[in-house]
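Q: Convert this sequence to structure tokens.
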Amino acid sequence: PCAGGAAYSPALTDFVFMVRETSQMFITGPDVVKAVTGEEITQNGLGGADTHASASGVCHFAYDDEETCIGEVRYLLSMLPSNNRELPPRVRGEDSTDRLCPALLDVVPADGNRSYNIREVIEEIVDDGEYLEVHAAWAPNLVCALARLDGATVGILANQPAAMAGVLDIRASEKGARFVQFCDAFNIPLVTLVDVPGFLPGVDQEHEGIIRRGAKLLYAYCNATVPRISVVLRKAYGGAYIVMDSRSIGADIALAWPTNEIAVMGAEGAANVVFRREINAADDPEAMRAQKIEEYRRELVHPYYAAERGLVDDVIDPTGTRAALISALSMLEAKDAGLPRRKHGNPPQ
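A:
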């Protein structure tokens, strides 16, 4: 934890904790900034806990006081192994392994256009509803958290429909990539909850390198050797679906809810592209568009389309998600997937 001025490199640190009003980190202080650029800013405004937690992404956890901060550090350490050659400690509680989660039916709307808070899904699934979210204020469209399932530590990545509809952008991709690499380094299995409409479109995203920076998340998943389980809750569109630990990039087990829609894009957008000529040539373009949208949805976006083509291993009852994840993790407990012999990989920069 950073209780005062920082004298170390956050780039070499797994997690950075900061205390509001007393912790600051910056390369050049406010006086130097003013002298060089003419900009006036306070120490907290330039490098305080909230600034680094929400704007720069340098800080992973920000707290109001040192006592709470130290307590959360202890909680984090209780979930981690003492070194990278050990497994995380297992702490079984009283939460039943076969506990059903009927609340999920109310939390997640079947309508893919309606929003919800993915944190409620995580809370319902994990042991005793307890989890530690990493980078909660930065790139909020992707939630990364450490939790336990049947007492075993797991890393959870989940699209957040309540923020930017859960799209993947540059920040979310980099946030997810680093979290995947951290979990893989310390033998922590990965659980990915997918509800993603795609990558964020935009000139700024393209010019800032969404292709190479988005590839960081893809590379991190492909390079991970820990057990990897993905669950498609609702939407899973295009390249963003592939990046979110799909079977095509090596997920060990891919599950889906009956509300899943795995496709290149939504029915409306796809019909406008695939059937453009028929729509434009029709006497009533709007009626033809509606017909093609319904046709596309009926033939390609029904719940069992993905299972029929091997994109997912099973379509599960949402209420049994916790039990299914615990069962899958138990089956993968002895997974041994060594990497090819090489000096190191060449990740996207």
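The first strand starts at residue 17 and ends at 19.
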